[in-house]
Amino acid sequence: MKIAVLIGSLSADSVTMKGAKVAIQAARTAGAEVEIFDLRERPLPMYDPEDEGKYEEENVKAFVELMTQADGFILGSPEYHNGISGVFKNALDFIGSTQFANKPVGLIASAGGPVATNTLNQMLTILRSLHAYVVPQFASVGYGVTFKEDGSFENQNMQERFEKVGRDVVNLVKAMKQSAEVK
Questions:
Q1: CA pair distance 179, 164, nearest whole angstrom
Q2: What are phi and psi of 113, to 5 degrees?
Q3: What is the pLDDT of residue 14?
Q4: What is the DSSP string of 140-163?
Q5: Residue 27, SS3?
Q6: How far apart are CA 165 and CA 75, in angstroms?
Q7: Can you give the residue ranges of every domain in the chain?
Q8: What integer pLDDT is reported at residue 183 of this predicted model?
Q9: Residues 6 or more apart in contact with residue 93 via CB below 8 angstroms
């Protein structure tokens, strides 16, 4: 089982990625192979619906292929001006329901305030329109949340919440595959 991760932050010290790594580790522990598509290392061009050659670009090809092959996803975005980041939205414009329909997705965000509610709601709206199964547990890193040296959260409740996102994606993939086999 393959879980694809997309984090919409270009920050070298991304708080969103720090939180996502907790969920990623939980997904790996639950038995998933996890692959991160790092937009900082592999930038995508600006999406242009009229550019017929856009899918021939190396990073775009790799991104679309990863997202198509994935059984589930962990997606994250920092909250910029009460919404998802531009690079996150741009990346999603290259893919659609072909990649997300009937696949589990865990959502993670980070905020300059207590909770990235608007970002999580925007992500939920987008993923619902693409027919994904968004797991009910969301995870948000608020302002002032700290991490230990090993990458875990200082706050045990935060640690458990982010781990649950990773486990829930894996468990839903397993349940959906099992259900498909029964038919």
A1: 22
A2: -115, -155
A3: 97
A4: EE-TT--B-TTS-BSSHHHHHHHH
A5: helix
A6: 10
A7: 2-182
A8: 66
A9: 47
Beta-strand runs (E) in the chain: 2-7, 33-37, 72-78, 104-110, 133-134, 139-141
Q: Using CA atoms in the order 96, 17, 71, 2, what is the torsion angle rounded to 10 degrees?
A: 140
Q: Read off the pLDDT of residues 64-98 as tens digits, 9 standing for 90 and up.
A: 999 999 999 999 999 999 999 999 999 999 999 99
Verdict on whether the full-model pTM lies above 0.90: yes
pLDDT digits (tens, 9 = 90+) for 11-70: 999 999 999 999 999 999 999 999 999 999 999 999 999 998 999 999 999 999 999 999
Tokens 């595959």 — which residue? 177
Query: CATH number of the domain at 2-182, please?
Result: 3.40.50.360
Select from 11, 14, 60 the least CA-distant residue to 37. Answer: 60
- Contacts of range 57-61, beta carbons closer than 8 Å, 24 or more positions apart: 60/94
